[in-house]
């Protein structure tokens, strides 16, 4: 197991690598990752660098390297660090999707990390195992499990991104949107089916989560019917 994997799995039985140079273990890896996550939460993923994190401890970027490796290693470590699943693990599809949605809202930068950049850490894997456990309890046939996993992750991620964007909108943004919407007087006649859509909720800011729950219910019904 290489040094990076040992860091990822440090709380699951793996032994942390010891820095080869200088005083040993002046810093705690969890403290480093807490600082990195705090920077990302406050200022976004672009603000995270080994230099910025090291400055929180009055250290240089090079002093941080023995603890986290390079920047991509740091991002993967903080990604898994921030992704701890609630205890007890969610036991229904609604609960699972809600918990992941809330995690993404708490740490919006997590959705900036593509699926190609999965951390391969235990916390992220806990989410997958919990979801598969729920699907197993629904007697989901093997051929439907992978598509269901993809649909749930993708829908939860997309709706959380939209909800986070809604939270950043101001009253002026809302007024401008409504003004543009009213600027096409024959919109309803041009697009009657679009205009006839029934909102999931009265407050548009709540629409992403309401839509997510409706999508989860549709999936659950389909899985139970075997379709």
TrEMBL record:
<keyword id="KW-0238">DNA-binding</keyword>
<dbReference type="Pfam" id="PF02909">
    <property type="entry name" value="TetR_C_1"/>
</dbReference>
<dbReference type="Pfam" id="PF00440">
    <property type="entry name" value="TetR_N"/>
</dbReference>
<dbReference type="InterPro" id="IPR009057">
    <property type="entry name" value="Homeodomain-like_sf"/>
</dbReference>
<feature type="domain" description="HTH tetR-type">
    <location>
        <begin position="32"/>
        <end position="76"/>
    </location>
</feature>
<dbReference type="InterPro" id="IPR036271">
    <property type="entry name" value="Tet_transcr_reg_TetR-rel_C_sf"/>
</dbReference>
<dbReference type="InterPro" id="IPR001647">
    <property type="entry name" value="HTH_TetR"/>
</dbReference>
<keyword id="KW-0805">Transcription regulation</keyword>
<feature type="domain" description="Tetracycline repressor TetR C-terminal">
    <location>
        <begin position="92"/>
        <end position="196"/>
    </location>
</feature>
<dbReference type="GO" id="GO:0045892">
    <property type="term" value="P:negative regulation of DNA-templated transcription"/>
</dbReference>
<dbReference type="GO" id="GO:0003677">
    <property type="term" value="F:DNA binding"/>
</dbReference>
<protein>
    <submittedName>
        <fullName>TetR family transcriptional regulator</fullName>
    </submittedName>
</protein>
<keyword id="KW-0804">Transcription</keyword>
<dbReference type="InterPro" id="IPR004111">
    <property type="entry name" value="Repressor_TetR_C"/>
</dbReference>
